[in-house]
Amino acid sequence: MINKLEFKAMGCHMLAALDLPEPQLAELEQVPGWFEAWEQSLSRFRGTSELSQLNHSAGMPFQVSETLWDVLQESLTSERLSLGLVTPAVLDALVMAGYDRSFDQLAPTSSYLTPNHFAPLGSLYEMQLDESNRTVCLPRNLHLDFGGIAKGWAADQATSKLSAFGPALVNAGGDIAVSGPQSNGEAWPIGITDPFNPDEDLEILMIEHGGVATSGKDYRRWQLDSVWQHHIIDPRTGMPAQTDVLTATVIAPSAVEAEVAAKVALISGSRAGLTWIESNPILAGMLVLEDGQRIYSERISEYLWS
Amino acid sequence: MTTNSVSRDTTVVQKPKTKNRDDLKVIITATALTVTLAFWNLFSNGAQKPVQAATNLEPGVTPQVVPFKILLGGPPPKTIIIVSQPGAAQPRSQKHNQQAAPQPVTKTASSK
């Protein structure tokens, strides 16, 4: 039977599910504690977090925990695979665009100062790493926000830990990791929310193993000088991405890979985004465009319930 | 016999007010054309068959025909048909055709 625990962490709604022979929450009750520890390390909204300290230490060597080191490595891989489109080096651009506090505290009608200019962002490869003592030295003009990468990474980690007790699934704010089929051998049914009608599902995916994530400009939006902004920054311009894709949902071998791929598809736009998904045999995806049109990749039919 | 040659004044004198008459002709013609087209549009509309949606609609899906006005001048009005077909974006496999859809354990959406 599927045991579920829902909680709030990283500014998002979280869900952990464990398939056990009987109702039991003891194992699941550990999960919020794991997320609290990860958030204290990885959040840019907490002034005392390890990431905030690293950002304040830009220009100087800073020794980081194993958690932050792992996420940095994951970020480097993401930046390389996405050809620079997905990078945590977006913090300054997000703040300039008005996303300078946790989304819960952003008043939608608030006006923010118009930034003087936007510019292409730096790269993680500008930082200096010393693996022997996990020391990081950020360039003075480079500050990090792990965003969805941290959520995807956390979903993968939590699922891996829970899988010691049984088939597990963790949903970290839309980034979902699945450890394997349910006890009865069936895949986990996962809905894709309709961005135009959040109470409805556009599709149901059947996932046995790996990750699913959705990236979108439909929810985390705010106004800057009466112009709607969103939180997906295009590193080539340093501005919120100009794209015809409203939401991108991608299936990948892990939640963090799915998160990165969904963001690439969103930033690239429908044509280039779908081509990129199709060219990568480990990915399958569905794009919802601003006009409501849906575009499916070839391989997603393997996962669709219908 | 002597022939007297008579020299003629060959200067052609323009008739007055010809321009005004031409203008009047143009105005009358334009008005007649406009009125004819207007009546044509008004009365030919009733004989037209309703436009059918090109797509094959699923049962229970109602096409919404957007009402339009006839405008004089400019391009002819077009009938716009908006077809809302939930969950029918492309043909898919029929592997679970006979079974009810399972209740999702969770949902994926942009981070909330």
Q: Gist?
A:
The complex is a heterodimer of chains A (306) and B (112). Chain A has helices spanning 31-42, 50-56, 66-81, 91-96, 148-162, 255-268, 270-278, and strands at 2-9, 12-19, 61-63, 128-130, 135-137, 168-172, 175-178, 188-194, 197-207, 210-216, 221-224, 227-230, 233-234, 239-240, 245-252, 284-289, 294-296.
Characterization of this structure:
- The complex is a heterodimer of chains A (306) and B (112).
- Chain A is α+β, with helices and mostly antiparallel strands.
- Chain A has helices at 31-42, 50-56, 66-81, 91-96, 148-162, 255-268, 270-278, and strands at 2-9, 12-19, 61-63, 128-130, 135-137, 168-172, 175-178, 188-194, 197-207, 210-216, 221-224, 227-230, 233-234, 239-240, 245-252, 284-289, 294-296.
- Chain A has seven helices and 17 strands.
- An eight-stranded antiparallel sheet of chain A has the order 1-2-6-7-10-15-16-17. In chain A, strands 3-5-4 form a three-stranded antiparallel sheet, with no helix packed on it. In chain A, strands 8-9 form a two-stranded antiparallel ribbon.
- With 112 residues, chain B is of the alpha+beta class.
- Helix content of chain B is 24%, strand content 6%.
- Chain B has one helix and three strands.
- Chain B has one helix spanning 18-44; strands at residues 64-65, 81-82, 106-108.
- Chain B is rod-shaped, with a radius of gyration of 35 Å.
- Classes of the chains: A alpha+beta (306), B alpha+beta (112).
